[in-house]
Amino acid sequence: MPHSTCEEFPQTVHPHWRAAAEAKGFGILQRVKDRYHLLLSCKACGETHMSKIFVVMNSQPQCPHCIQDRWQADAVAAGLKWAGRDPEDRHYAHYIAPCGHNLRRQFEMVKRAAEGLCSVRCEICHADKEQAEAEERGWHLIGEDTGGNQNYRLYRHASCGHVQRIARANMQTGRFQCSNCSEGWSSAPSFLYVMQLKLANGANLIKLGYSRDPVSRLYHQLLKTKETEAQVLRTVPISSGHAAVQIEKGLHARLKAEHPDSVAPPELYAHELRVKSEVYFADAAQVIFAMLDAIEAEEDS
Asked: Which of 7, 2, 57 is nearest to 33 (CA)?
């Protein structure tokens, strides 16, 4: 490291300076630059850096090499690859995500990710994911919500060109309609469904109901916890939501009247399901399937 000659500033390193540096994990190699600076050697990593005498005597010197090592370790723990500090902001650095994209993030944010307190998301990949979600539902993602709500996005319907604000969660689950061209739930096609549920306590249950989207109904509305093993066993297409709700009510009335012992008590499943009724023990499955067979035959006729 270039520094001025001894004629320009004193070279004496006082014993109490050395003692202070040693107590703080550093050795003093020499005085450098001017009469205010010392060249320190870090006891932890062996690298050198320049520090003011005032810092050595009155504060805790920080080894920039050790700091960068910690930043790099945080990057690895967060699943990233260190790509260097941001030259424009000392609080930021650049990282390479597993997808290969370059991310600019604050050191503190990456540290939190390394500790498992948050995750690091690639904006490019996330935007592609949101676009794919929209296209799967027949929509095109335009961009952020014009109203500034972070939970909403602006989409264009591929069928009619209508532009609409939609919550991203609803786009993911399909629980929305185009306000320009979609039918209301009562006239739109629907399904009767039978779901199989195995609770964490070992109970095997059956849920009978109706929905425009049974899979979305199961995973995004019905279940409270991921511990519940669940699947849609069967669906029967019905011409309209209005017809589906009428048929469903009739099925539940028959089951309660003809098979009262098959009705599962709400306290058995209240901690895992977001419903309070219309749930049956698994041994009612064949009875329910027989009812659905008759309904399906009638719908097909």
From this structure: 2
